[in-house]
Each structure stands twice: as structure tokens, then as C-alpha cells.
């Protein structure tokens, strides 16, 4: 497993992410100026718009596995707190705002939000069949995911969950996907664990396509 060494750029990118998120949420004044200043100084070139922190954990884990320092490359991985926010982030950060290149990853059911928000921005986005956890479970297989859960010390919690009447008769993939969402923070934790368990040639197609997109030259769209 390849790992990157964190630099001061990570802290600066965190500051940009926080400023952009507060700006998009309509927070106190000054965050737009702060986001602009940081975007220019770092410089930020690309923003990866993600629905939530579990997706961000998976993206960060794959970057580490591939020896990529996304912050140093000018890439901001930004969990928005829900796909319905993508329009606001696209307006503020894309061609009509800071002029940054946009890309993203979303669940199938959230595709319409991304399609509307990114139409006309030149942005690309990549769609998971159900969600990213579903993609990872299908690639790894239920037996391997169960082994990873055991290695994380949660096999008893999983066994208790599987005894619930609502889980009887469901496919193992569905059971495991539901289990990951039953405890706060679990999806985030396993977003990293499952990605780190992937073979290099077995990365789910939407996640692999996102990283292929990040290899393309990117430039600001300011006039």
C-alpha cells in the first residue's frame, strides 16, 4: 500500500473547503473573500463535489493508495452534505463563480440534481449504480467485506444485525450495505477500509473514472 505524506497544503485546503462550505450555506460574510483568496493562493484548480463524508473518505483512501497528493495537485475533495446542495456549490465555485473546474461522484438516485446543476459548466460527474458502498461491496464480494468487518472488531454487531427479522431473505450485499449505515460514522470508517482492501485493478468503475478525470489537464475558466 502506497501512502502520501501530508503537507501544509492539506491544512490550507481544509481551510478553503471550510470557507467554501460556509459560503454555500449562507454563513456570515467574509467567507466568499476567504474562499477566493485561498483558491488563488494554493492554487485550487479542481473541486470534486461529493454527497457526503463517506464518499470523501473513499476518495482520500484511493488517492493514498495511488500515491496521489490531491491537495498538492490543487484538487479539493468537498463533501457537500447532500446532493441537493450541488447547484449552490456549482454556482459559487464553477465558471460563474470562482472559475474552478468541477467534477464529482454521485448515487444513481441523485443523478438529476448533478445533471441540472452541472449542465453548461463543462463539468463531468460519475454515477454509482446505487451508491459507492454498493459498488465497493459488489467488487470485494460479501465474504471479503465480512472478513474486513471482523478484522475491525465488529463481527458481533454484524451477527446481531443479521438476526433482525427485516434482514431475513435479503441478499448478502443488501444486508452489508444496510449494516454500514446503521451507526453514525460507520460508513465513513468503512469508506476507507473497503477502498484500502481493493486490488489495484479492481477499483469500482465510477471511482476509477473519477480518478481518470483528475489526470486530465485542468485550467481555470476565468476570462
Question: Which tags fit this structure?
Answer:
223 residues, alpha/beta, four-stranded parallel β-sheet, 11 helices, 4 strands, 10% strand, disordered C terminus
SS strand fraction: 5-15%
Kindly state the number of beta strands: 4
The SSE string, one letter per element, is: HHEHEHEHEHHHHHH
Strand order of the largest sheet: 2-1-3-4
Ends apart, CA distance between termini: 41 Å
Number of helices: 11
Give unreliable regions as ranges: 1-7, 218-223
- Fraction of helical residues: 40-55%
Q: What's the rounded overall pLDDT mean?
A: 92
- Structural class call reads alpha/beta
The 3D shape can be described as: elongated
What does the largest sheet look like? 4 strands, parallel
Cα-atom radius of gyration:
18 Å
Report what the structure shows:
β3 (101-107), α5 (111-118) and β4 form a beta-alpha-beta unit. The chain starts with 7 loop residues before the first helix and ends in a 9-residue tail after the last helix. It has helices at 8-24, 31-41, 53-65, 86-93, 111-118, 132-140, 142-151, 155-162, 172-180, 186-196, 205-214, and strands at 46-50, 75-79, 101-107, 124-128. It has a four-stranded parallel β-sheet with strand order 2-1-3-4, with helices on both faces. By secondary structure, it is of the alpha/beta class. The protein has eleven helices and four strands; from the N terminus they run ααβαβαβαβαααααα. The longest helix has 17 residues, at 8-24. Mean pLDDT is 92; it is low at 1-7 and 218-223. Helices cover 51% and strands 10% of the residues.
Amino acid at each position: 500500500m502506497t501512502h502520501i505524506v501530508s503537507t501544509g497544503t492539506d491544512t490550507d485546503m481544509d481551510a478553503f473547503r471550510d470557507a467554501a462550505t460556509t459560503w454555500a450555506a449562507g454563513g456570515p460574510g467574509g467567507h466568499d473573500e476567504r474562499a477566493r483568496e485561498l483558491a488563488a493562493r494554493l492554487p485550487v484548480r479542481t473541486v470534486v463535489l461529493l454527497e457526503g463524508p463517506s464518499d470523501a473518505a473513499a476518495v482520500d483512501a484511493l488517492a493514498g493508495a495511488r500515491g496521489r497528493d490531491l491537495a498538492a495537485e490543487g484538487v479539493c475533495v468537498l463533501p457537500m452534505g447532500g446532493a441537493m446542495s450541488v447547484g449552490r456549490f456549482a454556482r459559487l465555485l464553477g465558471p460563474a463563480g470562482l472559475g474552478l473546474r468541477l467534477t464529482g461522484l454521485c448515487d444513481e438516485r441523485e443523478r438529476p440534481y448533478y445533471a441540472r446543476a452541472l449542465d453548461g459548466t463543462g463539468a463531468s460527474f460519475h454515477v454509482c449504480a446505487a451508491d459507492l458502498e454498493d459498488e465497493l461491496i459488489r467488487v470485494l464480494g460479501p465474504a471479503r467485506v465480512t472478513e474486513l468487518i471482523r478484522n475491525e472488531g465488529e463481527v458481533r454487531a454484524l451477527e446481531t444485525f443479521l438476526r433482525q427479522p427485516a434482514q431475513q431473505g435479503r441478499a448478502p450485499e443488501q444486508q452489508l450495505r444496510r449494516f454500514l449505515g446503521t451507526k453514525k460514522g460507520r460508513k465513513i470508517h468503512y469508506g476507507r477500509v473497503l477502498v484500502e482492501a481493493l486490488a489495484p485493478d479492481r477499483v469500482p468503475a465510477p471511482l476509477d473514472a473519477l480518478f481518470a478525470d483528475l489526470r486530465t489537464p485542468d485550467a481555470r475558466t476565468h476570462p
